[in-house]
Design brief:
five-stranded mixed sheet, alpha/beta, 3 helices, Hypothetical Protein Mth938, Chain: A
């Protein structure tokens, strides 16, 4: 069962997301207990340092859903290696697909986080 305190991804649109009833501009990281702004405006800006909160929470996670923007792309090698080091798998997909996938996994009570690049 999902944690009732977890941020709820309700939608996405140009430039941001709707999370737990609030409009949030820009890219975001969703962890099981909180939402954080993410400075990555494109996949080229996604690196291990920018995903520090996900890496720090690694013991509490099994999977990171990575929304790569308008188009699918593989997770950067540095990001995949940093997540593997803390035993977190990464599933990259375009942001629209990630916005459909993450809520389903979270609602199932899975140990999942999301890093979503705004469209």
């Amino acid at each position: 069962m999902a944690d009732p305190a977890a941020p709820v991804l309700q939608g996405y649109g140009p430039g941001g997301f709707r999370i737990s009833g609030a409009t949030v501009a820009g890219s975001v990281i969703l962890l099981p207990d909180r939402m954080l702004p993410w400075a990555a405006g494109s996949l080229a800006e996604a690196d291990a340092a920018s995903l520090g909160p996900v890496i720090a929470a690694g013991a509490e996670l099994d999977l990171l859903v990575l929304g790569t923007g308008r188009r699918f792309a593989l997770a950067p090698a540095e990001v995949a290696a940093a997540l593997r080091a803390v035993r977190v798998a990464v599933e990259a997909m375009d942001t629209a697909a990630a916005c459909r996938t993450y809520p389903t996994l979270a609602a199932e009570g899975r140990r999942v986080a999301a890093a979503l690049i705004a469209l």
